[in-house]
Amino acid sequence: MRQASILLVEDEALIRMMLVEMLEELGHKVVAEAATVDEGRSLAEHAGYDLAILDINLQGVNVRPVAEMVVSRGLPLVFLSGYGSGGVPDGLKGAPAISKPCDAGTLQRTIEAVLIDGVMRTRE
Length: 124
Hints:
The strands form two sheets. This protein has a five-stranded parallel β-sheet with strand order 2-1-3-6-7, sandwiched between helices. The chain has a two-stranded antiparallel sheet with strand order 4-5. Helix 2 (about 35-45) runs parallel beside helix 3. It is of the alpha/beta class. The chain has helices at about 15-25, 35-45, 65-70, 105-115; strands spanning about 5-10, 30-35, 50-55, 55-60, 60, 75-80, 95-100. It has one domain: Response regulator (Rossmann fold), CATH 3.40.50. About 35% of the residues are buried. The radius of gyration is 13 Å and the shape is globular.
């Protein structure tokens, strides 16, 4: 499995730090982090990454604008949320969703599946 460069968008600082550590232990590199939709959208547009991992609810705001920017660049994404797949924004239901909290094995299997499939077909 190759190392992936990852954009991580998560509003809870402790969860974000734990995810960064988990991803690095799995051999990946978090190249950009954001806690808000505005930060996330800007990074999604300009940062260099292979995959985005996005929390669905950022301080009460839906992450959809960030997800749409990732998709517009032709890059894959994974939603990570306490809402599970039920919280995935309309139009992006085809993207994988992992429930929080997640374990390293689930995270790694999902990343591998997304990278093997290449660009996710996230439009309904």
